[in-house]
Amino acid sequence: MAARKKTPTPRKRAAPSKRPAKGRKRGSLAPGSRARGLAAGETALALESPEVATLAAEVRTRCGAPIGAYREPLSGRPLLLATVPLAALQPTPFQRDLSPTHTQRLARRIDESGAFLDPLIVVRGEDGKFWTPNGRHRLAAAKVLGLRQITVLISPDADLAYRILALNTEKAHNLRDRSLEVIRMARGLAEGRRRGSEQTWSEQFEAPELLTLGLLYETSGRFAGGAYSAFLRKVDRFSDRPLARSLREREGYAARLLGIDAEVKRIIAGLQSRGFRSPYLRNYVVARINPVRWLKPRKAGAAPLMPMGQALTRMSAAARGFKLDSVSHRDLAWIALGAAAEE
Questions:
Q1: For the whole model, what pTM was predicted?
Q2: What does the alpha-carbon distance between residue 339 and residue 40 come to, in Å, rounded to a whole number?
């Protein structure tokens, strides 16, 4: 009897892979659908132009040298390129603190390259002096190198000093530096009686919790802001009140958080006395007393999960009622695993 031939089982066809369109690489950025900004012939600007003539004269009175002028290609705003003595410049009062280590390293790199190629952005400050909103370390490095003059791009638009923070925060500042920059800028705006609320300056402030954390870092430079940032992101929002009034309200929130942190320190000390030595004790305790811990965060601009005042009241009560004997080493192990995953 002849063996029957097996009918071959048809192979499943693999699903077609999703490939990027021909001629376009995966992850590439598509160009804008319409052209923006000035054409080449529209950018040139003479030093005698009324838009920059006053600035050029002011540079000369400060023993500097105007070099040229142009209209910025995106917005068309005028900019003056010049060199000025280092003594004529000062950083804006709301920048992050100066790092001597970073300044020395930067000065060495500039010296090794043999050229200072990155001009400082400069505006006329409220005190009439030239302010640089984004060049504190480069200015300090130039002083270390003993430079007589430094190259600057001067804008007649004084408010650029505040708007440029949105570019500065793209750099790798830590949470403390970013928060201090934001709160110092907010104070400067409030003291200068700028119109508008926190919401008006939301792009410059980047995130509402940075204002609250900035107040906390001003009071306590070693405040553990990272432990509270997840809580604040869910309940902190920009206010529609005038800036000076909203800052006073935030000062009250910051004071309450400092009181909560004092309770957290007490709990940590109690846990340590029981033999717990994990570096994640603070994160664990703050997560345990966080009243919105298990609530899914909402999109930016949406209402908070809970009003800030109510959240702080619940958090404070949870801290006062914290039971030390409810903590196990297994709980801390899970916290450590979560922190490692985030890193």
A1: 0.59
A2: 51
